[in-house]
Every structure is written in structure tokens, then in C-alpha cells.
Batch of 3 targets.
Target 1
Amino acid sequence: MTTAREGALVRYEVSPSGVATVTLDDPATRNALRDPLLDDLLARLEHARADPAVRVVVLASADDRVFSSGGDLKSFASDTPLIEKYAGIDRFPRLFRLLGGLGKPTICAASGDVLAGAFGLALACDLVVAREDTRFGCPEIKVGVFPFMISALLYRSVPRAVANELMMTGRMISAVQAAELHIVNAVVPAADFDEEVGRWAGLVASRSPLLMRMGKQALDATRDLPLDAALDYLRAQLALAFGTEDLREGVSAFRDKREPRWTGR
């Protein structure tokens, strides 16, 4: 199923297997994360969260050179009143929180350079599959902007010294280097990229949507909790999982050497 509206900057399509592909499609700005695109993206992700047919979300780009150029620098330097700018940049934390609390796995299909705010978008996803010629970085410091919002995600993803280097120098890193830093899960030749993204999405979509949602929610809730509090929360979630039909079906299917039939209950 495909849904679209005239002038939309983000395309949305759901496959029969439950893969929702959310595609940034604003080539005139290199998919700059300006307010209209962010509003479209937030709306598409909210739709995916509420759609029971969706099992995994793939964030993709219609531009094969750049995933996204990041925040809209023109708006940063505009004469818009400061209070309006402050209200507008709320879209970034809302987006990062939404990806964490989506209840469904997210895959960033990095088919081109992932820059500035888009780097934060990739870091907010659960998995990243990158084309081998893709670069990642926070180049905004070169034009007098510090990657404030991204720093929270970057500090949670890579060693402190590396995060500081990327943010303070604006240096770009390759997809292979990103994989070495455990930012990227797979680096794929261009000819195999779409197939590999599909393979990852299909694999994740084949798991129990109920247990995946419970797991995603648990990860989001315990990410920054002290160990004791995290363990208490996770123990309760595991106990709830014991009462699901999907857990019993998964164990039965394993014993019977067959594919499980998930009911989401």
C-alpha cells in the first residue's frame, strides 16, 4: 500500500510483509531537515506507529547521493524571531524520541551521505545499513553551528573522544569507519544495497510483532536507568512476556522444527 499527497516531501509505503518504507523525497534541498519535511516525517512515523500492519520501519532517501544534508542552514541564519526558532527546533527532540518509542524496529537505509541532523536521525534508529560509499559526519561546526542536539545521541553511541573529534572538527567518516565504531550494522556495495536492506527488513519483520514492541519499549525505558532500576523493570516485562501467546507459539515452533505463526497476542 502506498499513501501520498500532492507536495509531500516524505513518501510512505507498506509491503505485504509489514515493512513500512518512509522515504525522504526533497531533492531540491538534498533532503534538508527543514520544518515542512520534518512535519511530514513525524506524521508518517506516527502513522506507522498506529498501523497494526507495520512490523518494521525503513527510513530511506530518494536521492542516491545523499540521505540528508541535515538541518536547514538558511533557517538557522534567518531573521525569524528567536522564540519562533526555539519553538521550531522542538521537532528534532520529538523525532528522536518518537523513533525510540515507536514500538517497532527502525532501519536507516543510508544510501548516501548522512550529515549533521541526519546523523542524529541515523543514530536514533535501531539498525543502520550503509552503502559502501556513504559518509557520516557533523560538518556544521565548519559554518559556525555546533551539533547540540546530535551530541546527546553521539555520546550514547561512540567513545567520548571520538564523539568530540567528530563534533569539534567536522571530520567525515566512511561507512567502514562507522561500522568499526559500531554505528553501522552492515556496509554493502551499491549493486547489492536495496537487496540487503530488504533482507534485514524482512528478517526483523518475521519476528513476533508483540514481543518486538515489548522489547523496544523496554530498551527505550531502561536506556538511562541505573542498573538496579533497569533490572527491576526488565524483570516485570519478562514476566508479562511469559503470559503471551506468541512466546508459547515461538517455543512450540522451535520444538516442532517449524516456522512460528505469530498472532500478536
Note: The longest helix spans residues 35-50.
Target 2
Amino acid sequence: MSIYQHFREEERPFVDQVLEWQEDVKYKHFDRLTEFLDPRQQEIVRTIIGHDEDVSLSFSGGSRSAERCRLRLTPPYLETFEEDFQLTLFSIEYPTKFVTIEHRDILGAFMNVGIKREKFGDILINEDGISQIIVATEISDYVEMNIQKVGKATVRLNRIPLTEHIIPKNEWTEEVTTASSMRLDVILAKMYKLSRSKVTPFIEKGLVKVNWKVVDRVNFTLEVGDYISVRGFGRSKVIGIDGMTKKEKYRLRYGRKQ
């Protein structure tokens, strides 16, 4: 039985990477620290090597609620401490009384100076507009020197202890619906309470991501655990399928985050 049958075709390169990490640790006794992994990638790692007694897995993104995390893989005789993850937390200082910055503004500022998404973790914004970001320590000096503008705001980045991370706003809210199939267009229409005719252009124009990758096929099949984002409509995730209705529709539990 091939391990690849448990994953989508587009996930195979990452599966290969995980198998390489496993071999390095298990047979060569290396320890490995990865870039930031999204929740789907973390799930793939746990599925492939989570029960391997010869490899210890530890994740950290700077807080217990972190979504994006770095992974440390070690032989079981090595202990892992928080400092081993090499994380730096910045507060983003700007005049909150006069301007507002959003998640997409911070993300854009980092991407615009050439920082790859896997080099920084969660972007945290609370109800008071306080903003923070967690980055890989190896790029912290570069970040500090190059991020001076976020959206319309002039900003200053200050390093602060990881223990001072804020609780971000917009926690997941769980909802329930029924759907005739797990096709992307069908599920998006249900989640965002739109008609399928309105959902289709978003998909075809590349404005929809599944597990942080653009999907432009309306007939793409979603699975439990998938994360979805639609530009301008926030994010959602497929939490579970609780059987079928008498009319042969899926009972779907999903989460929403603005």
C-alpha cells in the first residue's frame, strides 16, 4: 500500500519532504528545525511520522493557540526547549488613533520586501488594534530594518518576549449546514450563504484557496480538515461530517473566521 494514496496529488512534494526528514532523524540521528508549517502540513507530518518511536516531534508557533508552527524533529533521546524553535515576537507600533491596519496589510508588507510566507508565523491583531507578528529568528534583523510601512501606516517593530503575545480577535465560530456534495462550489455557497453562480467566478479567478493553495476548479472535492479562504469573505474550515440526511445530503459542521 502506497503512502501517497492518503494524500492529494498536489501534496506529494511535501510528503516526500517529510519522508526525507524522517529518514535523516531516524537513520542519521540528525535533528531538524523546519520553516513555519500551516495546519494542513502539520497534520501531514503527524500522519506520516507521528507514531514513529524513533522520531520525536515538537511544534511551536510562539503560543498555545498558534496556527502556523515550526517543527523540530529529533531522535527520542534529545530534549526540545522553547528556545530551540528560534522564534522572535515583534509588536508593530503605529498611531492607532489615526489609522487602522489589518491582517492583509501586514501580510502584504512582508511579502513586498521579499520575505517568504514560510519564514513568519501568525499575525496577531486584537480588538484594540494591537498588532504583533512572530518570525523566524534568522530573519529578525532583516525584518526590523525593512518593515517601516504597513498599509498606510508608518510603523516601528519592537522585539518583545514570547510570553507577551496577545489573544487575536475573530475566533472560530462553528455552524452547521447540509450539502448535496463536497464540491468546492457547493460548500462555499453554503458556508458563505451565496448562490453557486456568485461563488463560481471567485473560484475561476483564483480568489479561493484550499489549505493555503489557490484552487480554480469548481468541482474540487473538499475533505474534513480542509481550510478555505475566499478573498474578501474571510476564512472557513471543514470541521466534520455527521452522517447523511434522509434526502442523502451531508450534515456538515464548519467553522468561520472573518
Note: The mean pLDDT is 93.
Target 3
Amino acid sequence: MHKFIKLINLPTLVWVLMMLLWPGKILASDQDKSVQTIIHLLDYIARDYPAAVQQGTIYNAGEYAEMKEFSRTTYRTAEQLQSIRNEKELLSKFQQLNDRIEEKSSADSIAALAKNIKTEVIRLTNYQVAPTRWPDLALGKNLYMVNCVPCHGTQGSGQGKLAKGLRPAPTNFLDSVLLRGVSPFQAFNTIRLGIAGTAMRGFEELSDEEV
């Protein structure tokens, strides 16, 4: 662990420390899980849309299909939530996101709209998006060694024994530029829910505290 810490800069270290433990509220209700899913997919769209569309043209057909499906899923999920379904203006933004993706709009406009919707969802649902206690590094290290090393490697470089041939490749946690764009809450959602169409599965067997 000491060698790993020496390899990363302070902002990245803070992010890693925060993501190792998330002792927030237990996701006890279906609404909590639905809100988490919406936020997770909106974050993913905002971050990964440039891999699907560039300058109004489909760059990767598989990624583009994923963006469209994720956007539709957020709309369908929002429609079922009591705290959101009567918010016509917000629901119209979900539809607008669908339309802009269909139109292959710019990455900046997609990211801005997705982030705006996420902010509104968090405000309306009062959803908790920050850890409340400092993480247990020993627990985090043990969990990483058991669950993450096969794909992400012992140093976090994304070059574990199972990484070869995976598309997309496992995330390189030593990439400080990449990690500066990922919040602890995004990391929590990714670990909890996984990412469809990739080797990153959701770790439902872990408690919120362990995630």
C-alpha cells in the first residue's frame, strides 16, 4: 500500500481514500436504488459520450447504442419515481437528453444537460452523495486485493492477469487526469452497480460500508 501511495499525487490519493469506504445510508428502499441508478447512468453518459459521438458523427456504434439505452433507462426510471414523475419540467429534460443523443449533439451540451438533470434529481430526492466518515485503509486494501487485483492489478494500473483482451480495458487508477473527473460518489455507484457491456460487474455482495 505504501508503494501504491507513493505513485500517485495528492488529489488522486484523496479520491482513492474516499472511494474505499462509503458509510452512508443503507440503500433500503426501491426509490433509493432507482435514484442511484439514474445518477450513475447520467454520470456515465456525461463522461463517456465523447467515445460514442465526435463532431456530430458516430465514432463507435456500440458506445452510441449504449448511450441511447442508458438515456432511455434514466427516463423510464424517473417516470416511476413519485418524487420526480410529477415534475414535468424535469421529465422534459430527460426527454431532451434522449433527443440530443439521437441528434448526435456535441459532447459539451450532452455533459452539461446530464449534469444539470443529476443536480435536480439530487435536490428533489435529498439523496446523500458524500461519505460521512474517514475510510478504513486496512479494510480498503484487503477488499481491493480480493476483488479488484485480477483486473486492475496490484498497483492499480489496469494490467491485472485477467485484463488482457478486455474491451474496454480495466480503468488505470494511476491516471490522475482521469480520476480528477470522477467523484467518490461515481466510484461508489460504479462498484455497487457495475457498468453494463463491460467486465466491470456490480459488487452487490459487499455492504455499503465496504463499497
Note: The chain is about 55% helix and 0% strand.
